[in-house]
Every structure is written in C-alpha cells, then in structure tokens.
Design a protein that fits this description.
Largest sheet: 7 strands, antiparallel
Radius of gyration: 19 Å
CATH class of the largest domain: Alpha Beta
Order of helices and strands: EEEEEHHEHEHEEEEEEE
Number of strands: 14
Number of helices: 4
Mean pLDDT: 96
Structural class: alpha+beta
CATH architecture of the largest domain: Roll
C-alpha cells in the first residue's frame, strides 16, 4: 500500500510567547516493511530545522523560535509504502514461556523489561498476567492472551485520559485510548518477563484523527512482533510506524517549552489517503 499523510499540529497562544524550543518525532524510518519515499516538515513561524537520532534510533527534528509569536504550526507531509507482514499463526508456539529468560540475548531486551514513566509491572499486574495466561506454555500464545485481556477488559473512551495518565490509573478506571491500551499490555508482558516496547505511528483509516499506538513483543527465535490491543489484532500494511520507546514518554509527536502565557489551544489535524 502507498499512503500520503499530512499531519498538522497548531498552537494558538492567548498572548505572544518567545524562546520556544521544540522537538518533533514525526518522520518514520524505512525498514523491510515500510519505505519512506518523501518527508517534509514545515514550521511556521519559519525556523531552522536540525535532526538527530535518539537512543532508540528514532528521527528527532528540533528547532527554536526566539522572537515573540502568537501561533505555531508544525506540519509533516509524508509518502510511504507499506508491505503486508505475514502474521504469526494464532496456534503458533515458537518459544516456551518457561525459557523466556533467554530473551536477554537480544541486545535491546533489557531496556524493555523495566518499569518506565507510564508502565509498572507491580505485584498486582503480575497476578493479573498470571491469571490471564494460566495453562499457557508458549510465549507467543501468552502475548495473545494478554492482548485479549486488555482488549476485553478496557473500554475505549476518547478524552477519558491524558498523555500523562499512568497504566495503574487505566487499570483502576477500566477505560482509556490507544496509548493506554498499549501501556497496559506492555506492563502485563513485562510482568511475565516478555520484552515489550511502545510503538507510535499511524493507523490508516478514514476516521483517523491522530497518531495511533500499539505494542511490539520479543519472541526468541522469531523477533519483534507487533500487536494492537485496541483492535485485538496483529498489525498489517495499514500501519505506519514512526518510532519506538519504553512508553509514550519516549516518542511523543511534539514536545517543547517556551516563555510566556500558559493559556493556549492546540488543534491536531490528520489526513491519510491511499495513493493508487
């Protein structure tokens, strides 16, 4: 599939602000499952863009606007081609859960087994994960069982949480949005010592209005496999991956700080269209 994606984030301030320093994680990377053909980032007021790769190899653009300004617009224009990834069968059993400790041979595994800002593998989460996987002997089947638990026990409710909501609050209230579903699945997996990371990206649908979030789990002998607990499925060519991290805190689309009023409004506009 070929996709054209326009993602615009606009800020309007109650009074002019200055010394604005910002980072944007909006440029996907190319791999064997997706190829970025074109990417353009536009900033208004105009600013000099620089970029780097962060600890997780995500592409990070950064810029500063020192002069007073009342609005800020960050717009990315993207063309990307995605390939369908063969799903791992629902009855597949590639790696015994009893040997999941051997996942530590994967260089990145340790980083994605620890607690992070919004994810906590507490004793209560461990107990929940154990109950959900009772009788399951395979790592992949355990991950599928945990995804089913998250999808079935949480209610998708827009605006019920914020980007600062911890997974413990999501489990308590039993509701959230895609990033919350991802955080809970990550916590459950880590409680069983299954390495799990957070993915920020796009789900190409006509109703998409913002970035999407899902999870990747590491299965020894297979590699990293993507699971979307919001929709209880494996990802396909309709998913475009922007970046990865321990949780949302590592891959927010836009972050920054400035001097001036705290009264502001933010508007996000996302347009995704297939290219034939």
């Amino acid at each position: 599939m070929k996709w054209e994606i326009i993602h615009r984030t606009s800020y309007t301030y109650a009074s002019p602000v200055r010394d604005s320093f910002n980072e944007a994680r909006l440029q996907p990377f190319s791999d064997e499952w997706q190829t970025v053909e074109n990417f353009l980032l536009k900033i208004l007021p105009a600013a000099r863009l620089q970029h780097r790769h962060d600890f997780y190899s995500n592409i990070v653009h950064h810029f500063e606007i020192t002069e007073p300004h009342s609005t800020l617009s960050i717009e990315s224009n993207l063309r990307v081609t995605t390939k369908p990834r063969p799903p791992l069968g629902g009855d597949a059993a590639p790696w015994p859960l009893a040997r999941i400790g051997e996942a530590m041979r994967e260089p990145r595994a340790y980083e994605f087994l620890q607690d992070s800002r919004f994810v906590e593998a507490s004793p209560e989460v461990w107990r929940l994960a154990l109950d959900a996987t009772d009788g399951v002997a395979d790592t992949w089947q355990a991950a599928l069982a945990l995804m089913k638990l998250v999808h079935g026990s949480l209610k998708y409710e827009p605006s019920s949480t914020t980007v600062h909501t911890h997974m413990r609050d999501v489990l308590r209230d039993r509701r959230g949005v895609c990033q919350d579903f991802a955080h809970v699945l990550i916590g459950l997996c880590r409680a069983l010592k299954i390495p799990a990371l957070y993915v920020s990206g796009y789900l190409a649908t006509e109703t998409a209005r913002a970035t999407h979030a899902w999870t990747e789990v590491f299965i020894p002998g297979v590699g990293w496999r993507a699971l979307d607990p919001t929709h209880d499925c494996q990802t396909d060519e309709n998913y475009v991956k922007i970046g990865v991290g321990r949780d949302y805190a590592d891959v927010p689309p836009v972050t920054g700080n400035y001097k001036g009023t705290t009264k502001r409004t933010m508007l996000v506009d996302l347009k995704i269209e297939p290219i034939t």
